[in-house]
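Annotated sample (chain length 110).
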Amino acid sequence: MKKLIVTLFIVLMFKTGSVLAHAEHGKVSPKDAIQIAMKTTQQLTFKDFGFTVGKLNRNWKGLTVEDYKLYAAEANRYVVSASNKISEETIYFLMSMSGEVLKVNSEAKF
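Output written by the structure step:
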């Protein structure tokens, strides 16, 4: 029984330590924001998620990382642009610093 309690204590210490170690890692990098925008673009070619742009045309699937740019980085949010050369359209992703996509529209006005 003593070994079980000691083992449980050690496991809990490691779990608590890892939670505390990651408490300040909630902010995503600009590179991560671009990756999130890429994934969101792919998802928007399948389904309308209620954003202003609606469901995107299939040709948005062909975008590469070069088609995405960090448009703005403000105190508490990122704006990432995605340019579709085929349709000559650009869309903008407003996301929190934690990587949550808040809005997607065809203007950089949020």
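Annotation: Residues 26-105 form one domain.
Annotation: The helical segments are 2-21, 30-44.
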